Every structure is written in structure tokens, then in C-alpha cells.
Amino acid sequence: MKFTAEQIAGILEGEIVGNPQTEVHKLSKIEEGTEGAITFLANPKYQSYIYTTQASITIVNRTFEPENNIFTTLIKVDDAYKAFSKLLEYYNEVKLMKSGIEQPSVLSEGAVYGDNLYLGSFCYVGKNVKIGNNVKIYPNTFVGDNVTIGDNTILFAGVRVYSETEIGSGCTLHSGSIIGSDGFGFVPNEEGVYSKVPQIGNVVIEDNVDIGSCTTIDRATLGSTVIKKGVKLDNQIQIAHNVVIGENTVIASQTGVAGSTKIGSNCIIGGQVGIVGHITIGNNVRIQAQSGVAKNIPDGDIIQGSPAMPYADFSKSYVHFRNLPKIVSDIEDLKKVKS
């Protein structure tokens, strides 16, 4: 896709300084700009690069005035950073602007879909699936029977959505994510042999949820595993059966949440956090990376460590831990003096 400076200035309501017919087809950092790229200058620390960049177009603040010769065509706007962000959004929309049903793909009996569906090659859509308007399902994606997908949702290549799953509107599921696989339910007999407990519930994902690559959300044993609206899950996260995650909670990569735990709204959970099952974490809780959470956490707490404790207590304890060799040495010296 190619765009001229004139077209971009129209989108951003900007003023062109240079050739309005300059064309670009890619984005770059200002220090890495090459011909055919568009970049931006917002941070004064990077101002020197505007005189050396080979980017064809640079978005700058209206107050910017070059002190030396420049190669690049300028587009002046009120706020270069916000303008470039707006351009990124527009570029992403154009890039994802696909529709139609590619072949080979399978739409099973009873599957229905709304306007402007994109279904990529080698996709399978099961029986009685209901798909909303403007949904994009990229190649090699599996959608099981009786799944519901809301308007404007995107399933990138290689997503696996098991049967009975409900996905809301405006969601994004990245490649390799698995929604609705069986929960980890097994019962040992007298000989210690494990038998599987049937997992007959489902997963419910509400509106505007983002799910990262290779994240797994297990179906409930009974009832639903629920991811409420606005939740953002990073890559490689494990959400077990019957977990509930509250609105607008954010969880970073490699975190695992065990079965039947309830997490409140507006929580921030760092990477590599382990959370045991059957506990409740309140609203507005912050859990630092690599923490191990083994008990209920009240609203608004900030915790760290394994086992996790209040953040202030952890910080004080860590000071003593770092000084532990000296403390041990002092104790040994006292023992010698006493003896």
C-alpha cells in the first residue's frame, strides 16, 4: 500500500513542507528511516536524526523549524506523537481490511454469519456457529460447534476455539491461542490411577478482550470460565477451569491462574505470577512479577514475593535478605566472643 504526503496530511489535518506527492509504503523509527518510509519526531533527544534520516516523510510538531538542510518531506501537526499513533491505527485498519471466504475452507451445517466476513484458507467452522458482522478469521483457524462470535472480532491464524465458547464483540485473539480446552480435572482411584473428570462447561469472553499468542483458557467443569469485558491477556498465559477475571484487568506473560479463582476488576498482574486455585483477589490489586499468591487478597493491595506479602513488607525483608551473609557472620563472631 502506498500513500502520498497529501493523503497523509489529509488524515492528520497537517501542513506539508516539501513535495505533497512524496510516496511512502512503510513505517520506521527516525534513526532507521530509509527511502519510502514515514517516521515522526516528537522527542527532542532525537532531533539530530531528522538531518540524517532517509525517511521520505517525517511527522513533526508545528513549532519545529529545521536548522540545517533535510532530505525528508515534513508534515506539521499539533502533536507529532499522537498523530503518528493515529496513523498507526489507520494503517492497521487498512492492513486488516479483508473480506470474503477463501478456499479451501469449511462452513458446517447451520453456521450463520453477518456482513463483511473474512474467512481465510483452511479454516473450519463447526455446526450452528453464529458469527457477527465484520468478523475476520485468518487461515488455519478452528471454530468448534455452537460457538458464538460477536461483531468486529478478529481471530488470527492458528487460533483454536472449542465448542460452546462465547466470544463478544471487538475482541482480538492472537495466533496459537486456545479457548475452551478441557480443564485439568482428574481423580485418583485406590490404586493411584487417575480418571478424567468430564469438563462440560464453556468459556465466556466478553467484549473488547485481547488474548495474546499461545495463551490457553480452559473450559469450566460446570458453568463457565469467564473473561469479562476489557481484559487484556499477554502471550503464554494459563487460565484454568472456572476462573473469573474482572473487567479491565491486565495480566502479563507466563502467569498461571489455577481453577475456580476469582480475580477482581482493574487489577494489574505481572509476568510469571503463580496464583493458586479457589481464592479471591479483590479489585484494583497489583501483583508484582514472579509472585506466588496462595491466599485471598483484599481490594487495593500491592503484593510481591513467594509466598506473596504486602509490597512494603517485601521491600523491608529483602533488605535484610541481602544483608544475610553479614548478619550470619556477625552472629558467628558473637558466638566466638561468648565462648
How would you characterize the overall build of this protein?
- With 339 residues, the protein is of the alpha/beta class.
- It folds into two domains: 3-95, Udp-n-acetylmuramoylalanyl-d-glutamate--2,6- Diaminopimelate Ligase, Chain: A, domain 1 (3-Layer(aba) Sandwich), CATH 3.40.1390; 100-314, UDP N-Acetylglucosamine Acyltransferase, domain 1 (3 Solenoid), CATH 2.160.10.
- The chain contains four helices and 40 strands.
- The strands form six sheets. Strands 8-11-14-17-20-25-28-31-34-37-39-40 form a twelve-stranded mixed β-sheet. It has a ten-stranded parallel β-sheet with strand order 9-12-15-18-21-26-29-32-35-38, with no helix packed on it. Strands 10-13-16-19-24-27-30-33-36 form a nine-stranded parallel β-sheet, with no helix packed on it.
- The mean pLDDT is 93.
Oligomerization category of the chains in this entry: single chain
Helix fraction, binned, reads 10-25%
Helix/strand class? alpha/beta
Q: Calculate the terminal CA-CA distance, rounded to whole Å.
A: 83 Å
Please give the count of helices.
4
Radius of gyration based on Cα positions: 27 Å
Report the mean per-residue pLDDT as an integer.
Answer: 93
Strand-residue proportion:
25-35%
Poorly predicted runs = none
Any idea what the CATH superfamily of the largest domain is called? Hexapeptide repeat proteins
Major β-sheet profile: 12 strands, mixed
Shape designation? flat
CATH topology of the largest domain: UDP N-Acetylglucosamine Acyltransferase, domain 1
Count of DSSP strands: 40
What is the count of structural domains?
Answer: 2
